[in-house]
Structures are given as structure tokens and as C-alpha cells.
Amino acid sequence: MYQTWKLRLLLSGILLGTAVYALVPTFIYFSLSEAQLKEVRRDKDAFSKYLPKWSISNHIVPGLDLQGGMHMVLGVDVDKALSDKTSRTADRLRQFALEKKSAFTQIELMADGDLQTRILVRFASPNDLSHFNKAVLDQFGELVVVSQDNSSLTLQLDPRLVQSTRRDAVDQTIITIRNRVDKMGVTEPSISKRGEDQIQIQLPGYDNPDEAKSLIGRTAQLEFQMCDDTTLFLTALKDLPKDVELVTSSYHRPDGTSGKDIFLAFNENKLIEVKAFLKGKVSSENVIKYGKSGQAGLGPVMMRTYTLYKKVVLAGDDLVNTSVNMGLETDPRPGVSITFSATGARIFDELTAANIGNRMAIVLEDLVDSAPVFQTRISGGSANISMGGGRTREESIKDANQLSLVLKSGALPAPVTFREERSVGPSLGADSVKSGERAFLVGSLLVILLMIFYYRLSGFFSVVAVLMNLVFMLAALALLGATMTLPGIAGLLLTFGMAVDANVIINERIREELRRGKMPSSAVKTGYEAAFSAVIDSHVTTFIAGMVLWQYGTGPVQNFAMTLLIGTVLSIFTAVFITRIFFDMITSKGPKELSI
User: Fold this and answer.
1) DSSP 36-50
2) CA distances from 130 to 127, 141, 149, 310, 343 (A)
3) What is d(CA 45, CA 373) in angstroms, rounded to the nearest whole number?
4) How far apart are CA 148 and CA 531, in angstroms?
5) Mean of the per-residue pLDDT values for the chain?
6) Which of 314, 324, 347, 368 could disulfide-pair with 224, CB 3.0 to 4.6 Å?
7) Cα separation of 352 and 374, whole Å?
8) Is residue 401 a contact partner of residue 385, using CB atoms and an 8 Å limit?
9) Looking at per-residue confidence, does 114 or 257 come out higher?
């Protein structure tokens, strides 16, 4: 007999108290009114004001089928991403060959099946081909040779680059869409990969499908353009719109001189009016782009103009990686370190060498995110963008994180199409929840009464263990911030039944030992030992099934699998550990009978 049941009882009490603590935010969330829920769904920080100061914020989130909203499936055109990558590579190959003075007669795309993913290079003589291989191809690491003869060369992207391009097209699209959904104010979205080229998006509580499609489906472009700070055309403009101000400021160059930054500043609600005012007034060499000015959260959003050269010198696919740094020895301000591809590094090296002291604008979705000044020539394929002044270090670090995200995943790398979309009304979820509640309450009550009637005090122990299993499951889901759907509720009910079944097996084994004439303490010990293998076997097979569903399922199936996996593990714990405490407590005094 175990003499440590008091210690195990204390441990169980601590675990139960922790579980109840973890469920406090969930209880509060599901007790909110419709108006309060709407506020929380639109502002992720609004929920905190309903919580006690000592409470955590993680809670179970009702899924799309429970609270209504939007369901969409996007298809990512990974083939188009690959074709575009090949086209841009062909353009760079042509430019690089000209710089190396390598003779060729033609560089063009050619089809490989239905896709233009090969590059054909023609030459006037074998000597030109040989020079091209040595001077150009050996230094252009993105391509491999498919075939060649005396007058032509067929190239394609390196297979590793092809694989990463296809994979990144979907992964980066997911990151970008998640960033855009956050801006929509949807605080409980579900965004996941489905298959090789599809993305499933669920927006609980969101009821504007046109707005969602417009924001999510837009294929943004990340571009780098040089600022034209020599033009003075803005100063010659007359009759500026009301509340639009002409501003002239300066920035420091590395040689000690100052550059002029001339722009129009205005409130965000004047943007359309300013665009109409400037239409036709910009030279053919320039383009006007717009960006936000000042710090977010301090009054109305202010905008400003940037006068840029039309030519796009670098694009988003020239970046390999970005990361936030906390400051360098040469510049203690937080910033963003960026790493270019081999080709991008060469272009950036030449660009910085020719533009020291000038500004380069980082343009995302046609808005300028920032315009850093080139302080020196930057070689080696990496650079650092320091955050400007006028803000605290914490604010600079936050802005650096945002800029890093913009640079890494701001633009959709490939076109997307809406393959499936539907709106789910909240009444469907409400009706389903009510039906589920009734079924759960009636079924649970019948099981509880049956267990107590059939197994008496031991049945009561089983009921307590099963209820603790349910509390532990909900607490685990709350700590994970899991989304609960109707299949997830089905998983809860299934594991509830499994927990009951495990206790039935244990109770029956104990009754068998009592019928053989054993004392209660010995019967309990032997009964648990005999039942253990059967309980483990049934739960392990269920766990394996859950793992398969989790690995190969999507959306609702994964939600079912998640609750099944968590419930399976906890069912073993409560059936074997929790109920044993109660039995040891009763048999510790050596009774001659056991209520079972």
C-alpha cells in the first residue's frame, strides 16, 4: 500500500488549483455580452480590461463554426512565382554579361512544359560561348546548365533555388496575410497551410467579405527607389490645398554637408485630395510616393510626400534575410540588418558607391516605409538600417521589429486566387453550441448516475477523476490559446468517454480480485496492476490515431486531433494516478470491505 497518498493528494490539489487559475480568462470571455465580445474581437488589447490584475490573458477561442465569420481558401500561384523569378534572373544575366563585355546574340526565356523556366543564350561563335562560361556563368551562382552546343546554352534555376522558391512562396504568403489580418482588427484568426499551394483563412466574428478579400488578396510589391532630393518642383506649386503644408528639412551627409528634404505634410484624410492636386505636376523622371509621418498613436495620422526616381533599383526578392539588431559599435541605435542575394549584393554595392550621402526609399504597397541615408559604400551583401531619432529606445526596437517584418514578408511573393469562400452566420454556431451543451449535460448526468449506482463509492471516485480530467483538458487548451470548434467539442466528448472507460476497466479488475477473496488493499493494488496494460494499450492506439489525424488533417480535423491527443494523455493520468489516491486513502486503515 502506498503511504504517500497525502503527498499525492496535495500535488493533485495544486494541479487542480493551477487549472482553475488558467481557466479564469476563459470563464470571463464566455460571460461577456455581445457588445463586449464585438469590442474584444476588434481590439486584442480590449480584453485585458475585463481581467483581474492577477490573471493571465490566454483563453480558449471559439472557432468560426461557433461564433460565425468568414472562411476562405486561397490558392498560391507558385508556378508564376517561379516564372517571375526566372524572368528577373534572365534580365540580370543579360546586364551582368554586358558589364563583363561577354558577347552574345540573344538571351531569352524558353518554355519547359507549360512554364517559362529556362533561359536560352545564343552566341555567334564557340569562343564567345567559352568566354561567357568563364567570365559570366562561373560568377552567377543562381543558374545551372541544362544543355549546350557550339552556338547556344540552355540554363535553368538551381534546383535548390527552385525548391526554396516554391516553398517560400506559400510560407511568405502566410506570414504576409497574417500581418494584414492583424491590421484588419481580427484578433482570433486561424491561418494555416493546406496542401502544397493552398492557404486556409478563418476570420471569426468578421462580417465584411469585400474588405477582407481586398486586403488579403492584394499582391503587394516591395521596392527600393532612390530619392530625388535635387528637384525643387514642390516649392513652385501654388494654391496648396487647405491644411497641406510645404516643409523643408535637412539631413546630414557623411562629408559634413546637409541634404534638403522637401515634402508636403498633411492629415491622412487629405491623401486623395493631395494625389489629385499633384496629378500632372510631376516630371517624367520622377514619381511621388507617400508615407506616414510622426509617431503612431500621437494624434491624427499624418502623411508626407517623397519625390523618387521612377527606376526601381532593387526588389523584395533581392533580400535573403533580415534581422533586428540592438545597435552596433559604430551606431548604438537599434536597427535592421539586411542580407542580399549574390546578385542583389552586387547591385547594392554599386548603388551605394554611386550614391553616398543620398537617400533610398523602401516602398511597400506603394507607401514609403522609410528612407535611410547611405553613409558609406556597402559591400559584402549586408547592410544596416538605423532607426531615426525622436523616439525612445523601446520605440526604436518596436519600429525595427516592424520594419524587419515588412522587409522580410511585406509583399506577396506570388499571385493568389480565391478558390473557396463562404460566410458563416453566428446563429448556426449558437444553435450547435446549445445542442451540444444539452447533449453533453444529459449524457454526462446519465454516465455519472450510472457510475455511482453501479460502483457506489468507487464510482464516485471515478466521477471525480473524470471531471478533473475535463478541467485539466480545458486548462491545457486555454494555456495554448487554442481555437475550439465543433469537431474539437466532439474530441472533448470522446476523451470524456475514454476516461470513463478507463475507470470501468480498473473498477472491474478490483472487483475480480475482491471476488477471489483478497482484502481491499491487496485487491486495489493487484487490480491496478492488471488494468494498467489494458488502459495503456487502448490509449496508445488512440494517441497514434490522433497523431495521424494531426499530421495529415487540416482545419477542423486538426482541432479534433488536438483535443484527442491532450485528452488521451490526461485520461491516463486521472484514471491511474488520481483515482488511486482515493482508493489508497480508503484502504489505508485496513477495512475489510470496499464499496464497489
Assistant:
1) HHHHHHH-TTGGGGG
2) 5, 17, 11, 37, 22
3) 36
4) 72
5) 80
6) 314
7) 6
8) no
9) 257
Which residues are bridge partners to 154 per DSSP? 120, 147
List CB contacts of 397: < 8 A, sequence separation 6 or more.
324, 326, 334
Other C-beta atoms lying within 10 Å of the C-beta of residue 31 = 9
CA-to-CA distance for 180 and 184, rounded, in angstroms?
7
Comma-separated ranges of CATH 3.90.1150.10 domains in the chain: 78-158
User: What would the grid cell of residue 310 be?
Assistant: 521612377
The set of residues, in sequence order, having a beta carbon less than 8 Å from that of 60 and lying 6+ positions away, is 26, 29, 474, 477, 478, 481, 482, 483, 484
CA dist 187 and 565 (Å) reads 26
Task: Give the three cell numbers for residue 19.
Answer: 487549472
- The cell numbers describing 24, all together, are 479564469
What count of other Cβ atoms lies within 10 Å of the Cβ of residue 247?
13
pTM: predicted TM-score of the whole model, two decimal places: 0.56
**Length, in residues, of the chain:** 596
Per-residue pLDDT, 296: 47
Helices (H) and strands (E) in the chain, counts: 15, 21
DSSP summary character for residue 517: T
Question: What CATH number was assigned to the domain covering residues 78-158?
Answer: 3.90.1150.10
Stretch among 215-219, 259-263, 580-584 having the lowest mean pLDDT = 215-219
pLDDT per position as a tens digit, 224-273: 889 998 888 898 888 889 889 999 888 888 888 888 889 999 988 888 89
The set of cell numbers assigned to 239 is 494654391
Interval 30-55: pLDDT, tens: 888 878 887 777 666 778 888 888 88
In the chain, residues under CATH classification 1.20.1640.10 are 5-68+425-587
Residue 188 — very low, low, confident or very high, per pLDDT cuts 50/70/90? low
Where are the strands (E) in 163-217, listed by range? 190-194, 198-204
CB 82 within 8 A of CB 112: no
Q: Mean pLDDT, to the nearest integer, of 134-146? A: 76
Residue 297 pLDDT: 47
Residue 21 cell numbers, joined = 487559475
Q: Which three cell numbers stand for residue 435?
A: 445542442
| pLDDT tens per residue across span 75-112 | 888 888 888 788 878 877 787 778 777 787 888 887 77
State how far the Cα of 203 lies from the Cα of 372, in Å rounded to an integer. 37
Task: Reply yes or no on whether the pLDDT at 284 is more than 70.
Answer: yes
The answer to whether residues 220 and 406 touch, using CB atoms and an 8 Å cutoff, is no
Q: Where does 101-224 have alpha helices with state H?
A: 126-135, 159-183, 209-216
Q: Residue 371 contacts by C-beta under 8 Å, 6 or more apart in sequence?
A: 227, 291, 306, 359, 360, 361, 362
Percent of the chain clearing pLDDT 90 (strictly above): 5
Contacts of 554 (CB under 8 A, 6+ apart): 192, 194, 195, 200
* Cβ 169 vs Cβ 414: under 8 Å: yes
Contacts of residue 354, defined as CB under 8 A and 6 or more positions apart, other chains included, come to: none
Strand partners, 322: 338
